[in-house]
Amino acid sequence: MEGFPLFKTKSEVYKKFDLTDVNSRKDYFDYKCGEEIKKLREFLKNNTFIAYLLGKKSSGKGTYSKMFAEVVGREEIAHFSIGDMVRSFDEIVRDSAKKKEFISFLEKNYRGYMPLDKIIEALETRSTKVLLPSELILALAKREIAKLGRKAIFIDGFPRDLDQVSYSLFFRDLIGYRDDPDIFVLIDVPTAVIDERVKFRVICPLCQTSRNLKLLPTKNVEHEQGKFYLLCDNSNCLSVQQEKPARMATKEGDELGIEPIKARLDKDETLIKQAFNLQGVPKILLRNSIPAEKTSEFADDYEITPAYSYQWNNKEQKVEITEKPWEVKDDQGVLSNSLMPPPVVVSLIKQLVKAIGIGS
Ligand SMILES: [Zn+2]
Predict the structure, then answer these.
(1) Of the candidates 219, 232, 52, which has an alpha carbon nearest to the alpha carbon of residue 145?
(2) Ligand 1 centre from 206 Cα, in Å?
(3) Cα 299 to averaged position of ligand 1 atoms, centre (Å)
(4) Alpha-carbon distance 177 to 157, whole Å?
(5) Ligand 1 centroid to 205 CA: how many Å?
(6) What are phi and psi of 354, to 5 degrees?
(7) pLDDT at position 163
(8) Under 8 Å between Cβ of 51 and 155
(9) pLDDT digits 0-9 by tens, 147-156
(10) Which of 34, 83, 172, 245 has its C-alpha lying 20 to 30 A from 265's C-alpha?
């Protein structure tokens, strides 16, 4: 997407970290933005903020905000997903006690054009034809956020439609955060990155652990008739017949990549562009990719997502694994590398300190 500047996370003095290891990752954050983390912790002792995360489906919104909380403070920061809330309605309308309480809350708190019984009917029949009204989503989001206690919140999935962009300008008043800063966090991820994340995603049929054949392999890889398969790392997961680790498999539909969610991705892009043009609200712009020719100037080598490929060594009867930086074309067709989540979170931390006015 245009207008998202490159953010430099490359250090003056090179120091290597293993970003997949929790402890090394902690040292990494201290090294890259220790001062900013201290300022944020100090701020969060007596203050909160609301950050609206806007990014395409599978752009890493949850990953970034959870990692932010891991680094800055789990007690003070919450991640609230509107999508998860909406999915929970499904269970609520099937439990008579919960349903009764749900309806009674809405009778008191919902104001809107669509009649309540029509909404409940749509939820019960799982009808996707009826779009849940924004007024309903807002009333329920307010209730759920009140349950979190007073915390800084990353709101994921709101605004969800264009009409909700204007609602979001008043949302902090609605939930009683009037004096706290609110910020839009816009995430730019090339479509090709999302496509390959989905296409090469595999899950263990037994423990449901998710991995990626190209981007996140397991320790053991199996070869059969020119194809390669990840074997689950969980020692409890064994294949039935052969008493060996279970083979991870592609979930039906994933081989199509982004094709089935193309309409959703386009809508998300329109939303991001709309929010990009909002005036008077601080915006944090995060990008997942760097043009390959600029990578060494802006990032350290270990901050780049690696890609794995496999060859069968027939002589030694084993799989050989090659690791090199993942290369994708961004939406403008520029050959790019993709950043690991931690450097994106460094960019978020540094921009947030400025946005809420606690920078030096
Ligand atoms: Zn497993």
Answers:
(1) 52
(2) 5
(3) 34
(4) 19
(5) 7
(6) -70, -45
(7) 82
(8) yes
(9) 998 999 999 9
(10) 172
- Answer for the pair 80, 154: CB distance below 8 angstroms, yes or no: yes
Q: Distance, CA 244 to ligand 1 centroid (Å)?
A: 12
CA of 237 to the centre of ligand 1 (A): 5
From the CA of 259, how far away is ligand 1's center (Å)? Answer: 28
Tens of pLDDT, residues 172-182: 888 888 889 99
Closest CA to 310 of 218, 210, 242: 218
| pLDDT number for residue 128 | 72
C-alpha of residue 320 to centroid of ligand 1, in Å? 22
Tell me the H-state helices in 256-325. Answer: 262-276, 295-298
Q: How far is CA 330 from CA 145, 289, 337, in A?
A: 36, 8, 9
CB 53 within 8 A of CB 65: yes
**Residue 270: how many CB atoms within 10 A of its CB?**
12
Bridge partners, residue 287, by sequence: 188
Q: How remote is the CA of residue 325 from the centroid of ligand 1, in Å?
A: 27
Q: How far is the CA of 252 from the centre of ligand 1 (A)?
A: 18
Task: Using 70 as the pLDDT threshold, list the residues of the chain that sit under it.
Answer: none
pLDDT in tens, 303-360: 999 999 999 999 999 999 999 999 999 999 999 999 999 999 999 999 999 999 998 7
284 by Cβ neighbours in 10 Å (0-12 / 13-18 / 19+) ranks as: buried
**How many Å lie between the centroid of ligand 1 and the Cα of residue 209?**
6
Token reading at 126? 């799982």
